[in-house]
Amino acid sequence: MAASDTLLRLRYRLVPDRLFGELLTKSWIDNVIPALALVATVLVMISVIPGFLSVGTFSDLARQVSEFGLVALALTIVILSGGIDLSVGSMFALCVLAALVSMNVFGLPIGVALMATLATGIACGLLNGVLIGYLRLRAFITTLVTLVIYRALYDIIFPRLASAIVGSMPVSPTWDLIGFGSFNGVPVSFIIFVIIAIGAHIVLSRLRPGWRLRAVGGARRSAYNAGINV
User: Does residue 103 share a domain with residue 144?
Assistant: First the structure.
């Protein structure tokens, strides 16, 4: 018993449980933990991958962040509102397919292709919104079903047009600028993503629609009692 008591005292003396508990209650800890995880990941990559800190590596990372960051940004808004969207990957694939078909198959200008891409995303999101918001279906099950539907549409359309998409390479300086251009070494696509992310942050944190959306996601009943149309 004496030995176990001694070990127990050492455990309480050496392991700062109270300190960890107090840190976890701080409001800023939610932002610090992901930042520390990111720093740790970068340090591991530096030690494992030679030349990780090169300009080319960060340029490629910035391009990838701009592509998937827009999808993550949209999904963040959905989650902040208290919902979930499992079909976002299939919607992303359909939107990319719409852009490729518009430009490579039909030869449409880039402006029209972008409009077709936005229309595809809006149509898919509108279907999810009607099913969940107006028909009161479960978001998890509904978006799981639409995930399968959107993916099936992609699998049906793409094989039929794959040869036409691959065989045609339209010349568009604007398209090349968005996809491969850079400004002082910073990819244009990443600059566009940062501008959109800042705009989304302002809307969510500084404007009334963003406050209402976060209120609905935080406590739907309380938001309803406060007069917000949920």
Answer: yes
- Does 210 fall in a domain? yes
Pick from 151, 170, 189: which residue ends a domain?
170
State the first-to-last Cα distance of the chain, in angstroms, to the nearest integer.
Answer: 60
Along the chain (230 residues), what's the average pLDDT of each consecutive run of 10 residues? 67 63 71 88 89 85 91 92 93 94 91 94 95 92 96 95 86 85 90 96 93 88 82
Picking from 62, 94, 51, the residue whose alpha carbon sits closest to that of residue 184 is 62
Domain region containing 140: 82-170
C-alpha to C-alpha distance for 101 and 93, rounded to whole angstroms: 12
d(CA 69, CA 88): 12
104 beta partners? none
Domain count, the chain: 2
**Residues facing residue 182 across a β-bridge:** 187
Same domain, 161 and 185: no
- The Cα 147–Cα 131 span in angstroms is 13
Cα–Cα distance list, 219 to 30, 130, 222 (Å): 19, 21, 5
Contacts of 212 by beta carbon, 8 Å cutoff, 6+ apart: 223, 228
Whose tokens are 């501008």? That residue is 195
The pTM of this model reads 0.80
